[in-house]
Amino acid sequence: MSTQLPANLSEGTVRTISEERDEPDWLLQTRLDALAALEDLEMPSVIETPGRRWTNLEDLDFESLVDPLNQSDETERVTAEGARVLDFETALAEHGELVEEHFGSVTDPETNYLTALSTALFTTGTVIYVPAGVDAEDVKVRAEMNSRSLFSHTLVVAEENASATILERISNGDGAAAEVDGDRYFSNLVEVVGGENAYVQYGTLQNLDEDVYNFTLKRGDADTYSTVNWIEGNIGSRLTRSDIETELTGDSSESKIVGAFFGHEDQHFDINARVWHHGEHTTADLVTRGVLDDEARSVYEGVQDVGRDAWDTSSYQRENTLMLSDESEADASPKLIIHNHDTEASHSATVGQVDAEDLFYMTSRSIPENTARNMLVEGFFVPVLEEVEVDELRDDIEDLIVARLD
């Protein structure tokens, strides 16, 4: 059943957002088309087990969560030599044809209700353009949400033989909670276009306040010999729905999706990693680890879809969740969808508690129980953190894990 359009959203609202930014007609029309589609679109699909629907997105009260004309953020952008890292308004003015060509080319704005809502209402975001042959090693985007709702859209275009490493941090600004009473909503759409023989690594660390409902869809398209890698760290928010996806369109293209999350109190994480193998000789590796304490909950879905013409495919998936309390809950649903026989693929998922024998061994050596447990948790994250190739991001995730344990 589709979700009703909130009363505070209208064509006039969307036109006001577009006119205030002096946007071209094509983008206004894209927004209006997304708005019109809302009444017929469904929420993203969620995992269901007998008698239970793990994530209930339909109950989100967008009437109170969304304040489209009062969005506010502070976003710092750091570029690298040869690359362009621009806010959307500047990018439309300086690279209008590039934005028009690629906007919505990787992610259909009408994929589901939440993507259409974000497309219609986004007021902030970044365009990262890496021309052919440019090596952009240290691109940074630090976004602070300072309003009840914030909708963001990021577009990355890496041309032939280009390379980019992008680090994104998402949090609430100082004083944001005092200025906004009640729950909040953050939406973040990211599209990555990987040209022939391009390399893009996109890392995100989300540490939003725990009264924020967070939705993110990051999607990449990898051309021939192209690599699109993702690193996704989720620590904050009340509820996070995270979808990280790659289309391996070109022959010999590659993707790695690395995820880490740590929930406590009543946090809820709905984590999804998906890859589609279309070209020949493609490779994918999906690695996720999470820890849950108190009454936190998580659900994970991993999908490896191998097409009929995706000969000589290698695709691997591992997901592990560690529960620190009897009240925490987790479920996992790894999936293999294989349409040809020339494939090497595997998937695994585990859900369990701290090993009692390991804990006993450490406490019998005079290590306090809480210290021993924390050491085991830090050790549990090591295999996934070793996959994080960006030193700064790995260190930041480790620091947040240690801070939560303390």
A few lines on this structure:
The protein is α/β, with parallel strands linked by helices and about 400 residues long.
Please describe what this structure looks like.
It is a single chain. The protein has one domain (11-354). The protein is 23% helix and 42% strand. The chain contains ten helices and 20 strands. The protein has helices at 11-20, 25-37, 62-65, 88-94, 96-102, 113-121, 176-179, 356-364, 369-385, 391-405, and strands spanning 48-49, 52-53, 73-78, 84-87, 124-130, 135-145, 149-158, 163-172, 184-194, 199-206, 212-222, 227-234, 239-248, 254-263, 268-277, 283-292, 297-306, 313-323, 329-338, 343-353. The strands form three sheets. The chain has a nine-stranded mixed beta sheet with strand order 3-6-8-10-12-14-16-18-20, covered by helices on one side. Strands 4-5-7-9-11-13-15-17-19 form a nine-stranded mixed beta sheet. Strands 1-2 form a two-stranded antiparallel ribbon. It is globular. It starts with 10 loop residues before the first helix and ends with a helix.
Q: What is the chain-wise order of helices and strands? A: HHEEHEEHHHEEEEHEEEEEEEEEEEEHHH
DSSP helix count?
10
Strand order of the largest sheet: 3-6-8-10-12-14-16-18-20
The structural class is alpha/beta
Q: Number of domains in the coordinates? A: 1
Measured between the Cα atoms of the first and last residue, the distance is 43 Å
Overall mean confidence score, pLDDT:
94
Low-confidence stretches: none
Radius of gyration: 21 Å
Question: How much of the residues is beta strand, in percent?
Answer: 35-45%
Secondary structure tally: strands: 20
**Overall helicity:** 10-25%
Shape: globular
Largest sheet: 9 strands, mixed
